[in-house]
């Protein structure tokens, strides 16, 4: 049961990342591209967790936590740059 | 945790894990589809800002349940990731909305109302009759 659910989830999350990549490449404005990257890192966390279930190991938990923290910090940095023209004033 | 060693509990945990996995992946996909499908930036922001946190949170809950199922241990790290995403997603959405208002991105034509950043400024007009204590203002060319 978990195997079938895992395959369906892999397919859906991979399609979600493909849609994010479309918005990242096409997106008419700069905030569109930023929010596409933001969603992409959250979806990649989901993909890493699915891979963890697939392998039944706990090695990648810290990787998911690192991606969450660094992705948030990079989003805030780019937003600050677009808002103020500088990151650390 | 010896009280967990029951056959029906394994079946129930497996069904719950599969359900949470598929539900989380479906919500993640729907939010990304909305980001591609909707018409302007302010509409497109809804998917990532709201649904992605729920989708990834459900997948993380499924992973926690899976490790309860196979190892009979409870890992707190995945709940930490969920809490971190719950805290940070509104902050990044708020900053992105501020960037969009700063750049004055166009909104869809059927949008009613606008925040004060996008509205026209109220500018006072020249009065018809000149002020009695300032007679010079009525004779401007």
Structure description:
Chain A is mainly α. Chain A has one domain (2-15, 25-84). Chain A has three helices and no strands. Chain A has helices spanning 2-26, 30-55, 61-84. In chain A, helix 2 packs antiparallel against helix 3 (61-84). The longest helix of chain A is centred in the middle third of the chain and has 26 residues, at 30-55. The model of chain A has no long low-confidence stretch (mean pLDDT 91). By secondary structure, chain B is mainly α. Chain B has a domain at 7-103. In chain B, 62% of the residues lie in helices and 0% in strands. Chain B has four helices and no strands. Chain B has helices at 7-37, 41-44, 46-71, 77-102. Chain B is elongated. Chain B starts with 6 loop residues before the first helix and ends in a 39-residue tail after the last helix. The mean pLDDT of chain B is 83. Chains A and B meet through helix 1, helix 2 and helix 3 of A and helix 1, helix 3 and helix 4 of B. Chain A: Keywords: Antiport, Cell membrane, Ion transport, Membrane, Transmembrane, Transmembrane helix, Transport. Chain A: It is a multi-pass membrane protein. Chain A: InterPro entries: MrpF/PhaF-like. Chain A: GO terms for molecular function: sodium:proton antiporter activity. Chain A: It is found in: Cell membrane.
């Amino acid at each position: 049961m978990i195997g079938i659910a895992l395959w369906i989830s892999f397919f859906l999350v991979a399609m979600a990342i493909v849609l994010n990549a479309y918005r990242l490449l096409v997106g008419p404005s700069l905030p569109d591209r930023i929010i596409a990257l933001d969603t992409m890192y959250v979806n990649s966390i989901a993909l890493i967790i699915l891979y963890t279930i697939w392998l039944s190991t706990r090695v990648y938990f810290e990787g998911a936590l690192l991606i969450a923290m660094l992705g948030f910090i990079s989003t805030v940095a780019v937003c600050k740059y677009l808002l103020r023209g500088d990151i650390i004033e | 945790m010896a009280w967990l060693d029951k056959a029906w509990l394994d079946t129930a945990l497996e069904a719950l894990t599969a359900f949470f996995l598929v539900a989380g992946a479906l919500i993640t996909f729907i939010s990304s589809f909305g980001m591609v499908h909707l018409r302007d930036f302010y509409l497109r922001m809804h998917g990532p800002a709201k649904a992605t946190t729920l989708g990834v949170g459900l997948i993380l809950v499924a992973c926690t349940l899976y490790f309860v199922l196979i190892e009979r241990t409870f890992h707190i790290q995945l709940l930490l990731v969920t809490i971190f995403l719950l805290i940070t997603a509104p902050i990044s959405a708020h900053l992105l909305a501020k960037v969009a208002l700063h750049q004055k991105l166009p909104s869809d034509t059927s949008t009613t109302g606008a925040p004060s950043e996008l509205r026209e400024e109220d500018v006072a007009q020249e009065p018809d009759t000149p002020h009695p204590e300032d007679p010079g203002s009525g004779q401007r060319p």
